[in-house]
DNA sequence: ATAATATGTCATAGA
DNA sequence: GATCTATGACATATT
């Protein structure tokens, strides 16, 4: 490399242009030491050309490399381009420098693009606005994400609307179906259909399994209880009924076989706080579900269905009857003395307090806890699915933005490559002019193919014979 | 009849 | 340890 210095031509290029970033077209005062001092029209052209050349060198980020004054390290960033384009100034190139601009710029400089981005920003200040766009992994990306989060409120309302729509639709459909079944037949059909193959209930005690209530009659429960919702009564009558049931030998013996279980009495079945827990006897006769209504009409002596059902009745805006859910029917069957929404929604302390208000048997207690668990999990599942949808929508939105950004960057890259190709063509022309002038005015048979530009520590550029430079490498 | 979708439920993990 | 919440997986209902 040092031998290259010895063989350096008397062409010394002062890189003043480097101190004037962005001044590509004109006012850069550039000296070409070793050239003529006079300014012929040709020289003026040459000056202009050199100004452009200096801008090119600035574009390529000529920097003082290290203590080795002629190392080509500053050019390394151009290496991909050099290797393909043949515009090398520091690396030995077997190809000759093209004198014309016939090469397709985009294809030639494709690989050089990433390294060229920062100089391009300075070269064309107008491009700053383009490249200030959020870059993946950069700060701009987070800013973009933040902007997309503004999407959420309308999405939430949309999803709420979707949930309400589908829900009400499903209930209406059930109501229509119920019209075709009557009484216990319908209920038996429904419960058979709901025989809960999906219910492992392995975590629940056997007593808790409501299917035991409907399908298999546990020995500890009275027969009338097992008839379930078919004979729901008010609390008072229920207790009176149960007082009478206490005389039932079968029930009492079987029920007393469960230690710690006390059958509800009139006293302990009454809610302590009737305002809080809504005295059931005071509830008006509700609009019964069709099956229950048929049952009420068809079952002689079983005409008081309203009280329990009223607790489990879903609020509805129209006269369309809403069928009871499975848990509601189970609760009705086991005469759970409070509303399901309380079971599900009360805080745990209030829920436990509510349980203390009543003396529930094991089956009732297990059912109540299952209802609470399932109810909470149902809400959790709904929330989970809603969040999933929101995430999907959010990601789709983000994807759209990223695709738009990518298209924008692609356009910018193409534009940059075109500009760069023009500049490199001008540089090539400039080389040709320089060597042509050297031949004409100094009689030196220089050929553009025979020399390389090399940069010194002080920012000067030297033309070094290619073979000498090769020796120095 | 069948696929797609919605919903409920269970099991499980983590807070 | 009990409770709650989130979530995957599965079953069933609905479209």
Automatic annotation (TrEMBL):
Keyword Transcription regulation: yes
Native source species: Carassius auratus
UniProt-annotated stretches for the region Disordered: 193-212
Name this protein carries in UniProt: Transcription factor NF-E2 45 kDa subunit-like
Residue ranges that the Swiss-Prot or TrEMBL entry lists as coiled coil: 385-419
GO cellular component entries: nucleus
Annotated Gene3D superfamilies: Transcription factor, Skn-1-like, DNA-binding domain
GO molecular function terms noted in the UniProt entry: DNA-binding transcription factor activity, RNA polymerase II-specific; RNA polymerase II cis-regulatory region sequence-specific DNA binding
